[in-house]
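User: Hi! I have a protein structure encoded as tokens and I'd like to know what sequence might fold into it. I'm fairly new to this, so please keep things simple.
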């Protein structure tokens, strides 16, 4: 009986290690600290995926996210959401995004996001997708997107809380434009 209990206990520990919270990875580049880099599984045939992360500037001077690349995508863009005539739309951040000293900028569904286009294959839950972010001062920074479930709203978070936001953020609609 004790043996069985011990086996169960070790299995539980093992399982806990496997389900460690996503986004634990912390990438430092100069004064910047990037955490919670994630994406989500793409539905069948989709050619675009979002990319999300949190970047904190611990320095005393501003830096600027100016672009990036991803091997899995033919095209890499940065987008923001904006109200246009009462409708939430996304548009490219063309001049890059300033990361002010002492500030934290979050890329998340419904707000700033990376747009990986012309995907070479589907993203599946559990995948680790390497991308490179390019900052004006910190230079090129390699981060890994942890792929969450289809419809996830946060790394390791619950899906479905913001379905309305999800509808507004319809990439397939934008691609047809
Ligand atoms: Cu977008």
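Assistant: Happy to help. Inverse folding works backwards from shape to sequence: for each of the 177 positions I chose a residue that suits the local structure. Here it is:
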């Amino acid at each position: 009986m004790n043996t069985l209990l011990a086996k169960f206990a070790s299995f539980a520990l093992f399982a806990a290690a496997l389900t460690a919270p996503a986004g634990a990875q912390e990438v430092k580049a100069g004064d910047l600290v990037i955490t919670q880099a994630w994406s989500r599984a793409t539905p069948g045939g989709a050619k675009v995926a979002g990319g999300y992360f949190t970047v904190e500037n611990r320095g005393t001077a501003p830096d600027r996210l100016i672009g990036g690349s991803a091997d899995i995508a033919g095209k890499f863009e940065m987008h923001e959401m904006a109200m246009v005539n009462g409708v939430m739309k996304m548009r490219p951040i063309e001049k890059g995004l300033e990361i002010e000293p002492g500030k934290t900028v979050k890329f998340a569904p419904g707000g700033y996001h990376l747009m990986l286009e012309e995907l070479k294959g589907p993203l599946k839950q559990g995948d680790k997708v390497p991308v490179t972010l390019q900052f004006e001062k910190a230079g090129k920074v390699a981060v890994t997107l942890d792929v969450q479930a289809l419809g996830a709203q946060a790394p390791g978070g619950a899906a479905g809380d913001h379905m309305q936001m999800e509808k507004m953020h319809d990439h397939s609609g934008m691609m047809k434009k």
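A useful reference point when you look it over: The domain at 23-149+161-176 is CATH 2.60.40.1890 (Immunoglobulin-like). Feel free to ask if any position seems puzzling.
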